[in-house]
Amino acid sequence: MQTLDNNLLNCSFSNENNGLTSVKRGDFQLNLDGFAFDFGCNEVNQTGILEYDSMLNFRTWNLPAIKPTKKGNIPNPISFEVNKDTAVASYLVNQCLVRVIYHLADSILSIDIELENQSSDTLYLNTFSFILKLKELENVIFDFPGNVPMQHFEATKLEPYQVIETGLISFVTHTSTSKGDFNLMFIDSIEKWSTGVYHDGSCVNYVYSAGLEADLEPGAKLSVGTLYLQLCDSSNPYLQVRDFVSSLGYKPCEGGITEGVMYSCHPSGTMDAGFPLKDDLFKYAEYLPTLKNMGIDHVWLLPVFEHNEDGVYHSNDQSIIDERYGGEEGCKYFCDKAHELGMTVLFDYVPHGPAPEFPVARDNPEWPSKRRDGSLQDEWDCVSMDYNHPGYQEYTAELVHDHVKRFGVDGARIDCAMGGLSNWRPYKDNRPSGNSVKAGVNITNSIREGFLRGGKQSFILPENFNPIPNYYHVTDLFYDMTLYRVLDEIEKLFMDNPTEYTRLLTDFLERQALVAPENYHKLRYLGNHDTVSWVFQSRRATDCYTVDGAKALWAVISLIDGMPMIYQGDEDPSIYQAEGPKLIDFFTELFANRKKYIPTGSNVTTYLKTGTPVMAFLRGTEGNQVLVTVNLSGEEQVLDLSSYPLAKPLLEGKSSDILRPYDYQIFRV
User: Fold this and answer.
1) Which side of the chain, N or C, has fewer Cβ within a 10 Å radius?
2) Diameter over CA atoms, the chain
3) Confidence band for 654, pLDDT divided at 50, 70 and 90
4) What is the span of the domain harbouring residue 83?
């Protein structure tokens, strides 16, 4: 048996097939049935462990499928070399050399993959899956912190080969066993990936499937992502994820705008009502004082650029403000009025590109992505720009800089910030699948650069649903679709059980906070233009949770860490041509309480487990801390404040120890 050792870890490999058999830290040992892999080559999965899933017709939101075949296996390696803290197992799979590189560094075992084409023909590659096989079933409980599904799963309660797959790209899977906890983390700097877990009757299989697409020329090599195995010590296992990711250099950007309350809107009205208002920006500026009085600090304008009849997200030329919205003068007037009120304005940029006949695409034929046959990639009847092309990056940065000069715009929400469709005619040494994660980070950074050139603070909100470290350094606000998805899940499963609802929501938020950097700020919302009109709930929050239930959840997202956002009409349903109570007074009071009582300068939320329908959490740091309680049920709840005998209620007119249905209270502690 061969081993790798350092001061903290010991890894053992089988004499029979050089498979990884165990990883040990102190008295904690994981028994493994090896590390396996599968990948598509010339439209066939090579080890047969997973079904082949072609990515050629994927849309930007698609992730590789994880479908076990209940058969397949990797061959024995043709060589196995150990050198100090590194071991390399080399496999020849149909003339493709696969090098599995094991490396020890402190308490982490990392696994890297390198592929080399040893044939005389070009190899068409499609996905590469990392598969770690835990040789244990009993007492194995896994979860995906900060992602969906939000539950903790007991392996023995799953059917064999039933895959639990994350709804969004997940870089971490946490597992507790009877012997200890461990974390698996996967980071790919180039392409998106899927994450799933299943058992085969004897082993729990952890799968990370990178969305690799490339033509590998004879003799050429490429690398695909890194899998990290972390055996945890006795401290909190989720915090150990945060610390390790920070050690890799993934840290949030600093100095940007992260405080305040946001309002998302469009002068023509709301998407779910078909944009019925038809106002221009001169007229819509009259609503700004109402928003200011309600407590809004930041106004995110859905796209107001020149567009055709397909909709506001089908911009023809983002350098031109559409005359329907008052053109350049109307835009300048709106931004000036917002600034006079002390508010900021965010533009909604749509970098995926226009329809192919418009000048930005037509006159720059090297910018749009191409299919394998050289024809234009297209999505939503638009080209899919290659965000990795330096020409397009500079065009985008200058576009934004020009908007800063002309209008004084302050920040950006970025549509489709996870990148575009694969580009089979990529710029220089980029590979086709690099037009996803890598490209998304690049275009986000280009837009950020445009604001910095104009002397603005960074205020960047990319539409990146996926809680992955790749975006930390270019993101001021994480677009927290994960919390929205969790609320959607819980509403469907536990709406009639407020105690369980509160427990699950608290548990998710706590894990989300622990694995993310402490100063990673999140945009919190119950709905946006997409979710109220065509995806997921396709309804307003008040229709999903009742008016009172929605008010309680708005209290939660406004009083935990992050920046709350409401969508146009949440304050007044007549704006989207519906009936119901106006909530302007509710939001005015809520946002005023947030600004008056929630301590600034700290992004920390400490969640408390009440065992009741009351959600409770602490905000601030010791010496300047408040306790927030929110009743998530339709029945009056008695508060247990025995742990806080000196708690002082701060909200007048509300009881100090009884919470009315769906109400909230804040205490100085």
Assistant:
1) N
2) 80
3) confident
4) 2-247
